[in-house]
Design goal:
The structure holds three protein chains of three kinds. By secondary structure, chain A is an all-alpha fold. In chain A, about 75% of the residues lie in helices and about 0% in strands. Chain A has a domain of about 190 residues: MetI-like fold. Chain A has 13 helices and no strands. Chain C is globular, with a radius of gyration of 23 Å. Chain C has 13 helices and two strands. Chain C has a two-stranded antiparallel sheet. Chain C has a single domain, classed as Orthogonal Bundle (MetI-like fold). The chains are: A mainly alpha, B alpha/beta, C mainly alpha. Chains B and C meet through loops of B and helix 1 of C.
Chain lengths: ~325, ~325, ~325
């Protein structure tokens, strides 16, 4: 029955949330001041008449609520307006950035998850062993490590010192393609991906491992695990089938939030590695106060986070028979 | 013939606060085909005994000494892989709380089927038939549908029937039932007890009833082992134990629960002693109404007083006029 | 089993009396990494208090000034004279890190106080009053949780920096950086939601315990129960959350500054990292050392948080 219905209902439920977030972001920004004034501050040759022309062009003379409604109308029709710089439509700018950000984020999230499972399980099973202590200490290091600083350290070592990996961008020009002597665009992309992905994986992994370890420790002391053991079920099956499914549910719930955190954390990583994604564009847009672009990226990321949450909830319902999709 | 012989078994828990001697040198044996009651308050070591026999003592617990002979074979030196062939197949355990002992995220068919597959190397479809057959044995209604259901879809009594079926899947020779009725409604309790009695008789298993309820013991068991604070206090046939009990057993007998009471007993004055730093001499002496100076100073030994009756008490003979 | 009786004793205490805290402290003392973290935090406090005596060079005369401070010594690698080296601008990295520790302490303290106040108020009222209050508060919390807060923090920080007219407030001879204070408020406003949810859960659990039910049936007022019974019992949890909040506050301020949206009038660790980022290939020490100190500080708070939560819930360690 209800899966399609549930998804539709959840999407409907997201609408007020999306609108609420857009209202807050919009009013906070536009109430702050005149973007044209700020944008042209550094340009002494511009005249007041030209400014006025620009204001009219961007509709900035209307009251803020009117501006917001116009923005909302365009947003509903999938149009984020024009960037204040370069005269390009926001949609066009976001399009390519979106792909680069998704590539980096998805790659890292999936890899972090895959690595976290054996690490968390093993660390919980061998509680207080050398491996456990190293896994837990590495994970607390990962949680405490400022992401951007870790990126800087990696760049210093692998790019500047060893000269192995590129420190910036997502692609090299064809002339720069040779990676370990092989000329290949795919290898080139991969080489660009390694450092920023390592930073993201390390940060995500730390949280996942901690959560999974705690979950496993809790689950392993449950009666049903002892019952499986008392029935002669093999240890591997107990761990990876019976215990893991129970221990992973809180992880999945948190994964939704974490995906949000990771996507939200994109600005820093992308800034450090000059990654041509939404995050770096966001930082630039904020420093230039390019309001339409800021709004566009904010909304795209909000929607990505909400969809991630929805997928998480679906996964949760799929795992736990007691959860009904309501 | 004894199916199980436990000798000088020691199981300790190495906690941060210190070493908890959950089983401190216990010995007893179980005649084949009989029903034995393993009796004591909570914390006396009943559950740990069953866990030790199956070698599934949870961390930080460890069996530190003694031997456990099952059909003449010592289980303790066995490798983990060999031991696994005994668990669920020759020796089974029914847990106290059916709700927590069933995995909430897997169907009944999946959980029980895996056990059959593990031991019998059957195909999934054959295992399914096997599970349905065993569920019928445990008198679970509509087993064909039950195997596709999750634990939370059953009542407590039904869940316990499922757990009983799980323990019986491979017709074990020895079955431990760890307070199987404690968490159930009073009316359901009687049904489960009756079921266990029938199954024990029909399948010819050896049944160990772990309980603090002397009423159940009187109803079901031929033999009784009384544990207190990790020590065996008394072993004997049921009639002897009711006739001339150890002072601790006597206290337990006085505390046969009323119908409305499903929780632990609180009638014996005082608490189970701290097992990290247990009392000197006889561990029961601080709560014993007959305790004298010697009970504080000397650890009593388990003495054979005839008719298969063993008692660990300095004053038993005197109290029962056996000079 | 053997330790159930012990759990019953400790789990059922009415209030965490003095002895309970003493027990927690004793357990914490055994936690080596927790004690190590505590030691580092104390060191940070001492450094911040004595920064003018410890730092070999004075802070920059004008926070915004970019004039080389120690002429002829720009871009020097670490040496005895400049343990962390000097920047391209000719500032002594070691001294600047030491001076900036004051702001780290300020950020940690203020952000945690604000965040935890919001956490306690929302968590307690939602959990205890329940019904419609809970419904409304939890909806708001949810919105804050899905908010792309990291993004909005940047916009807020950027926009409100434009509004700052005076760089410092002078209160009783102490200068308080306005821009930094604004950032602290922004960060705090986006940090309480997750915490509040945890506290609410804890309150819901406590509400069902027998002694709360008992004092309710004896006619105790809601406020009395909340302040006398619930608050002391959620306090351990709140303290753990507070330590973790300290760690994240330091981190968030650092990356806001690193991205260039910090207080332009205040030299914080994040600001130091931002200033030298473009000279990474030459003066790497100007990035490595401030970052290392930042990392160690966050680590210290996280270690203490871990140690405390282990000391409060020993069950998780066993």
């Amino acid at each position: 029955m209800g899966l399609a219905k549930y998804v539709v209902r959840r999407i409907i439920y997201m609408i007020p949330l999306v609108i609420g977030i857009s209202i807050v972001s919009f009013f906070v920004m536009y109430a702050a001041g005149d973007p044209i004034q700020i944008a042209t501050m550094g340009n002494p040759s511009i005249t007041e008449a030209q400014r006025q022309f620009l204001r009219n062009y961007y509709g900035l003379n209307d009251p803020i609520p009117v501006q917001y409604l116009r923005w909302l109308d365009h947003f509903i029709h999938g149009d984020f307006g024009m960037s204040l710089y370069g005269g390009k439509p926001v949609n066009q700018i976001i399009g390519s950035l979106f792909w680069e950000t998704s590539k980096l984020q998805l790659f890292s999230i999936i890899l972090a998850f895959i690595i976290a499972i054996p690490a968390g399980v093993y660390s919980a099973v061998k509680q207080r062993s050398v491996t456990d202590y190293s896994v837990t200490s590495v994970s607390i290091f990962g949680i405490s490590m400022p992401v951007f600083w870790f990126g800087i350290v990696l760049i210093l070592i692998f790019s500047y010192h060893l000269g192995l990996l590129p420190s910036a961008g997502a692609h090299g020009a064809p002339s720069l393609w040779p990676v370990f002597g092989i000329r290949d665009p795919f290898l080139d992309e991969l080489a660009h991906l390694i450092l920023p992905a390592t930073v993201l994986i390390f940060a995500g992994l730390a949280w996942h491992v901690r959560l999974l370890r705690a979950g496993m420790l809790e689950v392993l002391r449950q009666d049903y695990i002892m019952a499986a053991r008392a029935s002669g079920i093999s240890e591997r099956k107990i761990l990876y089938k019976y215990a893991l499914k129970n221990a992973i549910t809180p992880l999945i719930t948190l994964l939704g939030l974490e995906i949000g955190l990771m996507i939200g954390g994109a600005p820093v990583t992308e800034f450090v590695f000059s990654w041509p994604g939404l995050g770096r564009a966001y930082v630039t847009a904020v420093s230039k106060l390019d309001f339409p672009l800021i709004m566009g990226i904010t909304m795209i990321i909000t929607i990505m986070v909400l969809i991630a949450n929805l997928i998480t909830d679906l996964a949760y319902a799929w795992i736990d028979p007691k959860v009904r999709l309501e | 013939m004894n199916i199980l012989e436990v000798e000088k078994l020691k199981t300790y828990f190495f906690t941060e606060a210190g070493v908890v001697k959950a089983l401190d040198d216990i010995s007893f044996s179980i005649p084949k085909g009989s029903t034995l009651g393993l009796v004591g308050e909570s914390g006396s070591g009943k559950t740990v005994t069953a866990q030790s026999v199956l070698r599934i003592v949870p961390k930080p617990g460890k069996i530190v000494g003694g031997s456990i002979f099952f059909e003449g074979e010592d289980l303790l030196p066995k490798k983990e892989g060999e031991m696994r062939k005994f668990r669920g197949k020759k020796i089974s355990l029914i847990f106290q709380d059916p709700t927590s002992s069933l995995n909430p995220l897997f169907t009944i068919g999946e959980q029980l089927g895996d056990i059959v597959v593990q031991h019998m190397k059957l195909k999934k479809s054959e295992a399914k038939e096997w599970v349905i057959k065993t569920l019928k044995l445990a008198k679970l209604p509509d087993p064909e549908n039950a195997i596709h259901s999750y634990p939370h879809q059953f009542s407590g009594g039904m869940k316990q029937r499922i757990c009983i079926a799980r323990a019986l899947l491979l017709s074990p020779k020895l079955l431990f039932a760890d307070e199987p009725t404690t968490n159930l409604d009073v009316t359901i309790q009687a049904q489960i007890i009756a079921l266990l009695k029938d199954l024990q008789r029909d399948l010819g298993m050896t049944l160990v009833m772990i309980t603090h309820d002397m009423g159940i013991v009187a109803d079901m068991c031929k033999w009784v082992v009384v544990l207190y604070a990790g020590n065996v206090m008394e072993i004997g046939p049921i009639d002897k134990i009711f006739e001339e009990p150890h002072p601790y057993t006597e206290a337990l007998l006085k505390a046969i629960p009323r119908l409305d009471q499903t929780k632990e007993l609180v009638f014996i004055p005082g608490n189970i002693p701290n097992l990290i730093d247990p009392p000197s001499g006889c561990k029961f002496h601080p709560r014993c109404q007959y305790a004298k100076e010697i009970c504080k100073e000397k650890i009593p030994s388990l003495e054979d007083i005839g008719d298969g009756h063993f008692v660990s008490c300095h004053r038993w003979k005197e109290l029962n006029n056996r000079g | 089993m053997a330790d159930t009786s012990k759990n019953k004793e400790s789990g059922f205490s009415m209030k965490r009396g003095v002895s309970q805290w003493a027990v927690t402290w004793r357990r914490f003392k055994k936690h080596k990494s927790g004690m190590f973290g505590l030691g580092m935090i104390i060191a940070l406090l001492v450094i911040a208090a004595l920064h003018n005596y410890i730092a070999p060079y004075p802070p920059r005369p004008l926070p915004g000034s970019f004039t080389p401070l120690y002429e002829g010594e720009a871009g020097m690698p670490p040496s005895l004279k400049h343990p962390f080296g000097t920047t391209v601008m000719g500032t002594d990295v070691f001294s600047e890190v030491i001076h900036a520790s004051v702001y780290t302490v300020y950020v940690t303290f203020l952000a945690t106080v604000i965040t935890m106040l919001l956490t306690i108020v929302v968590g307690l009222t939602a959990g205890y009053l329940g019904r419609h209050v809970d419904e409304v508060l939890m909806r708001i919390t949810e919105v804050f949780l899905v908010f792309p807060s990291t993004l909005l923090i940047l916009v807020f920080a950027r926009i409100y920096q434009l509004k700052v007219s005076e760089p410092f407030w002078y209160i009783g001879g102490i200068s308080i950086p306005v821009g930094l204070t604004i950032i602290i408020f922004i960060v705090s406003i986006f940090s309480w939601a997750g915490n509040a949810r945890i506290v609410r859960g804890e309150v819901l659990r406590l509400k069902e315990t027998e002694y709360i039910q008992a004092s309710k049936s004896l006619g105790a007022s809601s406020r009395w129960i909340m302040l006398r019974h619930i608050l002391p019992n959620v306090l351990p949890q709140v303290i753990v959350l507070a330590t973790l909040t300290m760690a994240s506050a330091v981190l968030v301020e650092a990356w806001v500054s690193f991205l260039g949206f910090g207080d332009p009038n205040t030299i914080t660790w994040g600001r130091l990292l931002q200033e030298s980022f473009n000279d990474l290939s030459t003066t790497w020490w100007a990035e490595i050392f401030p970052g290392l100190v930042l990392f160690l500080t966050v680590l210290a708070f996280n270690l203490v948080g871990d140690g405390l939560s282990d000391a409060i819930n020993p069950r998780l360690r066993e």
